[in-house]
Amino acid sequence: MPSFAALDTDPTMNLPLTPPVAPDVLTPASQASLPLAWQTLEAVPDPEIPVVSIRELGILRDVRVVANDSGEAAFEIVITPTYSGCPAMQQIAEDIA
């Protein structure tokens, strides 16, 4: 089963640092897990407005299957702040992990 991993971003451009994806991690099983990942992340609340999810606020941008450091399938979670310098981003990344 793929593991969840919060995404690191380039602090200067807020772009995801995407590791190369090995073709063998893009299996039907790992691709089939994507809807479950989205559903799981739907339940992650915004730390400042807990009645709203990070997906509803537009913080959750994408979920991708990538190879982790061990070459196994993992989820790359792409999140972006609602505004520059949002203090809740660290808490959101910890909640996802």
Structure commentary:
The protein is of the alpha+beta class and 97 residues long. Helix content is 23%, strand content 24%. It has three helices and five strands, in the order E-E-E-H-H-E-E-H. The strands form two sheets. Strands 1-5-4 form a three-stranded mixed β-sheet. The radius of gyration is 14 Å and the shape is elongated.
Beta content: 15-25%
- The ordered H/E elements are EEEHHEEH
Overall, the morphology is elongated
Radius of gyration: 14 Å
Strand order in the largest sheet: 1-5-4
Q: State mean pLDDT (0 to 100 scale).
A: 76
Number of strands: 5
In DSSP terms (H or I, runs of 4 or more residues), the helix count works out at 3
Name the poorly predicted regions: 1-20
Q: Give the N-terminus to C-terminus distance in angstroms.
A: 15 Å
What helical percentage do the residues reach?
A: 10-25%
Protein traits:
three-stranded mixed sheet, elongated, two-stranded antiparallel sheet, alpha+beta, single chain, disordered N terminus
Brief overview:
The chain has 97 residues and is of the alpha+beta class.
How is the topology of this model organized?
Blueprint: E1 3-6, E2 9-10, E3 15-16, H1 28-32, H2 34-42, E4 60-67, E5 73-79, H3 89-96
Parallel strand pairs: 1-5
Antiparallel strand pairs: 2-3, 4-5
